[in-house]
């Protein structure tokens, strides 16, 4: 592993706050290490089952301290990309698809996956309240978004806009503006994540798209039935599945 010291690299500029509150990206050295290692795994330079170099070796290679390396490795473990074996070191456990890094926002992979982790908790509770408080108007908006997602799938389009409308409509159905505010603050990350996962699904094939559609349908049916627990579980499962789909290489269907 060889690369230039990270101190020589420019940090990603923060996004514009025009149009509402958004979270600012804070580029950390550990995030850059995370993405460097991820890139090597995706490229095959570090194949599945391969042992990663020792922390001291990576610290010297990247020109950073060992705590920075540890933080990057902790994120990779949390995402299921590597696994640690006591007394042996860290090993590659999962290889994301090459398209994942090609389509992901430059310099934003670590933040994107953090956003998914946060969304599991946030949107699960959003779905719970939406199921309790939804109105017929909310159901019409959700149904329209589902219909547009189905049309995009049939026409081999990405369908990210309809997907985003679905999640925003769930937040609106809570009748709590703070949930909508939280979703707005995450809007850049959510939009990037939805676009990325749907593009990857489009590349894999129809079966993957049908699976994603079915997950949204399950959320809708739970909200429609006032099944709060079911809506929460369906939403949490959907978002976590989307995160795992980004991190798992699958053969494209013919």
UniProtKB/TrEMBL annotation:
Residues 1-22 are annotated as: Disordered. InterPro entries: GntR_C, TF_FadR/GntR_C, Tscrpt_reg_HTH_GntR, WH-like_DNA-bd_sf, WH_DNA-bd_sf. Keywords: DNA-binding, Transcription, Transcription regulation. Coiled coil: none annotated. Residues 27-95 form the HTH gntR-type domain. GO terms for molecular function: DNA binding; DNA-binding transcription factor activity. PANTHER family: TRANSCRIPTIONAL REGULATOR, GNTR FAMILY, UXU OPERON TRANSCRIPTIONAL REGULATOR. This is Transcriptional regulator, GntR family. It comes from Orrella dioscoreae.
């Amino acid at each position: 592993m060889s690369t230039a010291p990270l101190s020589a690299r420019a940090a990603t500029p923060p996004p514009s706050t025009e149009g509402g509150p958004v979270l600012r990206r804070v580029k950390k050295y550990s995030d850059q290490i995370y993405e460097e290692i991820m890139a090597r795994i995706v490229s095959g330079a570090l194949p599945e089952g391969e042992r990663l170099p020792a922390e001291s070796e990576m610290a010297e290679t990247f020109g950073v301290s060992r705590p920075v390396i540890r933080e990057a490795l902790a994120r990779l473990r949390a995402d299921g990309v590597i696994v640690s074996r006591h007394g042996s070191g860290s090993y590659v456990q999962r290889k994301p698809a090459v398209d994942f890094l090609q389509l992901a926002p430059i310099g934003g992979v670590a933040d994107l996956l953090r956003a998914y982790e946060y969304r599991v908790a946030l949107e699960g509770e959003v779905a719970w309240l939406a199921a309790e408080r939804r109105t017929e108007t909310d159901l019409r908006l959700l149904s329209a978004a589902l219909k547009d997602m189905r049309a995009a799938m049939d026409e081999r389009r990405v369908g990210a806009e309809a997907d985003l409308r679905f999640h925003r409509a769930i937040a609106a159905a809570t009748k709590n503006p703070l949930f909508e505010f939280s979703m707005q603050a995450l809007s850049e990350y959510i939009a990037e994540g939805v676009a990325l996962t749907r593009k990857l699904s489009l590349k894999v094939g129809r079966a993957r798209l049908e699976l994603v559609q079915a997950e949204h349908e399950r959320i809708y049916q739970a909200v429609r039935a006032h099944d709060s627990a079911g809506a929460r579980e369906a939403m949490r499962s959907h978002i976590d599945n989307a995160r795992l789909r980004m991190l798992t290489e699958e053969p494209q269907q013919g």
